[in-house]
From TrEMBL:
Record organism: Prolemur simus
Keywords, in A-Z order: Membrane, Transmembrane, Transmembrane helix
Highest taxon, organism lineage: Eukaryota
GO cellular component, one term: cell surface
The protein's name in its UniProt record: Small integral membrane protein 1 (Vel blood group)
A Pfam family matched in the record: DUF4731
């Protein structure tokens, strides 16, 4: 799989105006790949928000449980 080609165009015609730099990615096909479609579906819109909230809740509980277990063994009475 080859990386997509990109073109960079830099123009500076007048010193008083800010520099203009434009970048455009050139794609060989008109439609996004399978991974891009899945990423757009899971990371955008209402489903994307729900996935991020669910991921945050799962991450919270994983860290909580690991901290609880670690604290138990660190502070266990001998």
């Amino acid at each position: 799989m080859q990386p997509p080609e990109s073109s960079v165009h830099y123009s500076r015609w007048d010193d008083s105006s800010p520099d203009q730099v434009s970048m455009a990615a050139v794609s060989n096909t008109g439609e996004p790949s399978c991974c891009q479609r899945i990423s757009q579906k899971l990371c955008g819109g209402k489903l994307g928000v729900a996935m991020k909230v669910l991921g945050g809740v799962v991450l919270f509980w994983v860290v909580f449980i690991l901290g609880y277990i670690t604290g138990y063994y660190v502070h266990k009475c001998k």
